[in-house]
Design goal:
The complex is a heterodimer of chains A (248) and B (376). Chain A is of the alpha/beta class and 248 residues long. Chain A is 38% helix and 24% strand. Chain B contains 15 helices and four strands. Chain B is globular, with a radius of gyration of 22 Å. Classes of the chains: A alpha/beta (248), B mainly alpha (376).
């Protein structure tokens, strides 16, 4: 097992579904405090990569290391979440029947085992933290609102808020601005940049304007491996990227 | 600490239901025992037995609601846990008969003498003690639910597949208990009970006592269920019902929560069965019939799943209807039941109490400040 100073280290990861190679020798290194944007055409393996990192899908081959030592390929989703990796789904996924407050409460770093949650009572510090997060994701005053009644954009922000509540070291964010208005998109870019001050973020996104706004290092995925890496200007000048991404 | 735990989840509706259940448990026995039969308010003995039975059905419905309403596990096999609790109690009642059986054997129950058995099977030992039987009432269904849940939830079996597994479980148990060599009385089951803890089961006082015990058990079950549902664990249950994946990615070991609530619920159903058997005087493999489990689900659906109180009303209403119709129009009962289920599914998808809830809590438009501000 190679030790590395990287926060997340993927080496030669391969995943095959019924003979289709969703990931093909993918290697990727995320440093502590980094924000990375992942782009690539449909079927390039972006979501599969997220699935492998978060334990939803098992890699057939390759290493996935968190903080240099933790082998993520041996853990399940809940254990990986406990290590400090939060994931935002492509479609906003919140607990529709719970209030905004309860959604954040359940996400809050805290008891996760059966008996402690059975006996847990709301502490003042928890309440305060939840209100801080609601403020941050602009859901102030909506504590009692049932999450199912929120607008699409608000659900996206609530889910980001839930990730914040989890206090992860690494946040994986899958297409956060899909279906958002331009103003909401800009606001989300701002929000992610602020979040990045204290933790690492991986953003998968199709929206080029949004990626440009983030202004971070970009990895281009194609057919399950990294085609190019660098600034958005650098990769968009790469003839191979132009061919696979813009040529289609 | 314990009091706080139990009272934390208590809302007005559950409190009212608690009072109603306890009132039934005291008023009905009193009206039965204290008033002369000629009095207008006298509750006849058969009514005591009937109400006592309904209370145990209500407890079964509550246990189904706990897993289905709050955790999304549609169990079509809760009748099996009910029946197992019933058999555990039945075995104790058989041992209580002692030498008073038809064949007068000092130890062996009649059906074993009839089958020419020479000694008590090993699993019948201990059932002569009430405390042991009482333990088994909880342990047998609890352990079965734990074992089944352990494999099913770990393998992430959900939805209709899980329902089919639970249905198959109760069907398999029914076939097994029908066999004479299983040692549970086969086809005829266990019956001819004489007394419980020294009290004659035919006596009006004992029947009144059993009704009171059933109401206490139901009240305690309701208190426990409301405490679980009102706790943070209860919020986790609803969360994983609505989005299992989200709960997992937040770090919750979903299978442990399901296992916890499934096991508790099975034990609750077992207690209901144990109280049911002495009141009806018989337990036979028919109690494992898949139709019984499905009927329990109908009670919950009618009353309103995920409301705790609704299932109690549903159980009472459907069973009253059953008692009435099977006497008045025996052929119509199954049609009425089927029609009821179709009606509830189409017209009251959230049950009777669900209808009330929807009126009380209209969704209001969500308005938030337009721009998120990051501050961390």
């Amino acid at each position: 097992m190679s030790l590395t100073g990287a926060l997340l280290y993927l080496n030669d990861v391969t995943v095959t579904f019924d003979g289709f190679r969703a990931l093909n020798g993918l290697s990727l290194v995320i440093e502590p405090g980094e924000m990375r944007a992942i782009i690539g055409p449909n079927g390039a393996g972006k979501t599969t990569m997220m699935d492998v990192i978060t334990g939803k899908t098992r890699a057939d081959r390759g290493e996935v290391l968190f903080e240099g030592a933790r082998d993520l390929t041996r853990l399940d989703e809940a254990e990986i979440a406990e290590l400090g990796i939060g994931r935002k789904f492509q479609r906003p996924t919140v607990f529709e029947c719970h209030s905004v407050f309860d959604n954040l409460l359940l996400a809050l770093k805290g008891p996760r085992r059966v008996w402690p949650t059975l006996l847990a009572s709301l502490r003042g510090a928890e309440r305060q933290r939840i209100h801080e997060i609601m403020e941050m994701v602009r859901l102030r005053g909506l504590a009692a609102e049932i999450a199912g009644n929120l607008s699409h954009g608000q659900k996206q922000w609530l889910e980001i808020g839930m990730l914040l509540a989890q206090d992860p070291k690494l946040m994986l964010v899958d297409e956060p601005v899909a279906g958002m208005t331009d103003a909401e998109t800009a606001a989300t870019a701002e929000l992610l940049r602020e979040i990045n001050h204290t933790r690492s973020v991986i953003v998968v996104e199709h929206d080029m304007a949004f990626v440009r706004e983030l202004d971070v290092k970009v990895s281009v995925l194609h057919e399950g491996s990294v085609l190019a890496e660098g600034s958005l200007e650098h990769v968009s000048a790469d003839p191979r990227v132009i061919e696979v991404y813009l040529g289609r | 600490m314990i009091a706080r735990f139990f009272l934390a989840g208590l809302d007005r509706r559950v409190a009212l239901a608690l009072i109603a259940v306890l009132a039934i448990g005291t008023v009905v026995p009193l009206l039965n025992l204290m008033l002369p039969a000629s009095h207008g308010l006298h509750v006849p003995d058969y009514m005591v037995a009937l109400i006592g039975k309904y209370l145990t059905f209500a407890l079964l419905a509550l246990s189904v609601d706990l897993v289905w309403g709050y955790c999304g596990i549609l169990s079509l096999g809760h009748g099996a846990f009910f029946a197992l609790g019933g058999y555990a109690m039945g075995m104790h009642l058989m041992r209580e008969i002692g030498p008073r059986g038809v064949y007068g054997h000092p130890v062996l129950p009649d059906f074993m003498v009839f089958l020419n058995w020479k000694e008590l099977p090993w699993y019948w030992h201990g059932f002569d003690q009430f405390w042991f039987a009482a333990l088994m009432v909880v342990l047998a269904p609890g352990l079965l639910a734990f074992a089944l849940g352990w494999f099913a939830f770990r393998s992430r079996v959900t939805g209709v597949y899980l329902s089919i597994i639970t249905q198959a479980m109760t069907f398999a148990l029914m076939l097994a208990f029908f066999r004479n060599d299983m040692g549970f009385g086969g086809n005829n089951g266990l019956t001819d009970f004489k007394d419980l803890l020294g009290f004659n089961l035919q006596a009006a006082t004992t029947r009144a006592g059993l009704l009171a015990a059933s109401s206490l058990a139901l009240a305690f079950g309701l208190l426990l269920a409301s405490a679980i549902v009102g706790s943070r664990l209860g919020k986790v249950l609803v969360a994983l019902r609505d989005s299992e994946g989200r709960a997992r990615f937040l770090g919750y070991q979903v299978q442990r929560y399901k296992l916890f609530v499934f096991t508790i619920s099975a034990a609750m159903a077992g207690i209901a069965g144990a109280l049911y058997v002495p009141q009806v005087g018989i337990i036979n493999p028919g109690e494992f019939s898949p139709a019984n489990s499905i009927e329990a689900v109908i009670w919950v659906a009618l009353g309103g799943r995920g409301t705790l109180v609704g299932p109690l009303i549903g159980a009472g209403l459907v069973n009253y209807l059953k008692t009435y119709l099977t006497a008045a129009m025996p052929d119509a009962w199954l049609f009425a039941l089927g029609g009821l289920f179709i009606f509830v599914t189409l017209a009251l998808p959230r049950g009777m109490l669900g209808l009330l809830d929807r009126k009380a809590r209209r969704p209001r438009p969500a308005v938030a400040d337009p721009i998120p501000k990051a501050a961390e």
